[in-house]
Amino acid sequence: MSIGTLSHLGALAAYALLTLLLAISWRRRRITALLTFASGFTALWALAIVATRLAQAPLLLVQLAELGRDLFWCLFLVRILHQRARAMETETSRYDHWQKALLILGGGTALLFLASSGRPESLPALLLVEAPLLAWLLFSLTGLLLIEQIYRNASADERWALKYLCLGLGSLFAYDFYMYSEALLFKQIDPNLWQARGFINALAVPLVAISAARNESWTSGIHVSRHVVFHSLTLLIAGVYLLVMASAGFFIRHYGGTWGGVLQVAFFVATGLLLLILLFSDTLRARIRVLLSKHFFSYKYDYREEWSRFTRTLASGDDRIPERVIRALSALVNSKGGLLWLKTEETRYELIGQWGITVPEGIEEISDEDPLIRFMSNSGWVVDLDEYRSTPSLYEDLELPGWITTVPDAWLAIPLQFRDELLAILVIRHSEAQKSINWEDRDLLKMAGQQAAAHLAQHRADQALMQARQFEAFNRLSAYIVHDLKNILAQQSLIVSNAEKHKHNPAFVDDVIATVRNSVDRMTRLMEQMRSGMRGSRPGLLKLGPLLEQVVERRAGHRPVPRLRLPDTELCVMADRDQLGTVFGHLVQNAQEATPDDGSVEVRLFQEDDRAIIEVEDTGVGMDAAFISERLFKPFDSTKGLTGMGIGVFESREYIRSLGGDIRVKSVPGEGSLFRITLPHRGCDGEEH
Question: Residue 472 falls within a domain, yes or no?
Answer without folding.
Answer: no
